[in-house]
Amino acid sequence: MNKGEFSAKAQEEFKARNIELSDTAAAKLVDAVFDTLQTTLAGGENVAITGFGTFEVRSRAERQGRNPKTGEAITIKAQKTVGFKAGKGLKTAVN
Length: 95
What we know:
Distance between the termini: 19 Å
Radius of gyration: 19 Å
Number of domains: 2
Helix content: 40-55%
Number of strands: 5
């Protein structure tokens, strides 16, 4: 499912809950949620959504790797990445 399909699905869910939103308003709402999630994580804060899950910033230490083409040892620099841990409600819904 891509972002446009996700926005359409969200709009259907709004209609099911008697909330009237236009296509563009639903798309803007989805964009705002993703933008807020991105800026919050970029600021180093975790985002916990009860019943859904937790997005957190994780740090990876510098480590040694190998260039698959040449077999040469290389150093992979330290970096930050985003992790997600599913909440109980999401796990139950999926299973």
